[in-house]
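Ticket #4471: structure output looks truncated?

Reporter: J.K.
Steps to reproduce: submitted the chain below (137 residues) through the standard prediction queue, then opened the result file.
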Amino acid sequence: MYKLTFTGDLVTGFQRKETIENLAELLGIGTDEVQQRFFSDTPVEFKRVESEDEATRWREDFADAGALLIVSPVDEDIPGGSYYAGADPANTVVEEPTIASVTARLPAVRRRNQALMGLGVLAAVLILVGVIFAYLF
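Returned output as attached by the reporter:
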């Protein structure tokens, strides 16, 4: 079993308001409820899931929304389902996408990249025409 905890930390490049709106859409609840439930001064246990795959999916969905979700293994034999007694920090998974992956999703960055690709193709065509022209004359 895995415990999914949100501490209020955001993915680099995301603003709090944007993350709240994204989480509200992801979870199908209102922005006010997201604000009250997740953005307090203390870590919030979001949920517990059975499989590592399900925990990974939630972590990735939260990261896409702009929120860092901590995934920790839980020992069900300990009363209250505490963390594994002998767990080392390597068993706790926190994933933050790189700034490149975050900005690549922004429409302005995509438009800029398309324009740069267009300019690159144009430059290649001009160089090719110049080489052919120089070879013929």
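Triage note (M.O.): checked the attachment and the full token line is present. The chain has two domains: 2-97, 106-137.
Status: closed, working as intended.
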